[in-house]
Structure formats: C-alpha cells, structure tokens
Fold this protein.
Amino acid sequence: MVKKALFPLFLVSLPLIGAEVVGVYSPSHLRKPVVQKRVIQKRYYPSLSRYSTAPQWKTDFYFLLVKEDYREYQGSNVLDRDYSDWGDLKGFGVRGLWNNLVYGKLEYAYGDSHYVGATWSGEPLENDQTGTWIFNIEGGVKLQNGILLGIGYRVWNRGKSNYIGDYDEVYSWSYLQMGYKLNIPLGNKGEFDPEISYQYSLSSQMKAYMDTTITFDLGNVNGYRVELPFSFNLSQNLYLYLFYRYQYWDVGGSRVITATVNGKSVQLYEPPSTTSNHYLGVGIRAYF
C-alpha cells in the first residue's frame, strides 16, 4: 500500500482483517494514534470457502444421460415418435464461466432410440434405432443482474434402424438465447444455480440422407429450458457438480418440395414437431 506523508499530519494505513486502520499523528504532541475503522465489504465465494478474491475461471466437466421424446404432428394427431429411456443416450459436457461474465458450453450425447410410426405407404412400423446423437455448443455473456444473452448451435441425428430403406435424418439450427440465472450460496457447502431461458432459431433445416441428400427448410423454432444445478464442496477449489435439465423445442414444418428419390419425382415435406428432453448430469466443478 502506498503511504503519503503530509506535514504537519502523517496518514499511515495499517492492514487489519476486514478493516482499514488510519493513524493520525501530530509532530508536536507524541500520543497514541486515533484509530478509526472503516468497514470493508467482504465477498464470499463458495469455491474458496473463505473471504477472498474470486477466481477467473469456473469450469464444469460432467457426464450426462438424456431421456428423449420427439413427436411429429399432422394437426393434433401424432404421426410418429422417437424416444429413449434413461441410459440409452449417454454423453459428456464442459462448461466454463470466465470472470463471472463470459460463458461457453459444449455437449455431446450418443446412443440408441426407439421409433414408433409408419412407412411412406402408411404401414405401421416400430423398431430400434442406432447412431442417434445430439451435439450442442453455446456461448454468451452473463450480466451482473443475472441476465444471460447468448447464441448457440444444435444438431440432432435421429439415427436409423436395420429396416430396408431406412435413412438418417439430421436436424440443425442456430439460435439466440435470453435467460436468467441465480447464484444461491449453500453456506460453506456449495451453491445452487437455477436457470431459465428462451431460445429462438436464426435458421433451421433438416437433411434426409437417402440415395441423394434432400434439404428441408424448417419453420420457426422456439425453445425453453429449465436447469437446476447443485455443487457441493470436495476441497478448496473442487466441487461435486450435479444437475437436472428440461429442454423443450417447438419446430415449425417445412413447405412442400419436389425431389427425386430412387429415380422417381415425389413431393415431400417435413411435418411440425416437438421435442421434450430430460437431462441428468454428474461431474466436477473446478475453480482456477
């Protein structure tokens, strides 16, 4: 601390825990300094379990399970459905928050799903699908009032079965996100960071990989997400990280297009759909 000598008064600052001591001296009168205490605000960071300066990086490394429920509609009728149970889709993720301001997230899950629907000719069809995967990357800023502003990109491959003529369908869209995040300390044991957010697509499409690749431009995509993360102290800068998440997507259908499939000209369209996914995650939260 820089000390400044002022004549005939000298101001000396002495550090104390949680306070600053200011001594006032007069050269003509030797006496004990008059002590004045000025309270310094203390900030508590659960990661450090003490009063300290916040670390720059808060990073989560975690494994996740996804329970998927996808449905396509014709009016109010469900045309087909893809779904998975806990353990069918497994993956990992990493999320970072720098300086309590800039955040980023990357997730990937891979596994199996079950299809219930029909063939193009209308025959009922039900089978297991492999090669299902979900990829999501997201980044943005977290403002001091808890508001989140971000942008993201999501890709989902429905997977396919051993049924003759089956093919991959890959859905993708970029999106803007706006949300709100709280930070609730749990004493010295950890913290609770509930989050709610809304997403709106910038562009969305589905590609069907048949004998040729057919691209459908989808309608508007609206998403809603609720996340409930908990962290519990393991050591000074290391925490056990647990979360539950619910993600909902409402996807508009495409217009009718003309395409050539197996040498024949056909009219195709992608129906509107909804996705309701549940996530469970467990991992480590580290502060740097």
Summary: The chain has two domains: 10-39, 52-287. Residues 52-287 form a domain with the Lipocalin fold (CATH 2.40.128.100).
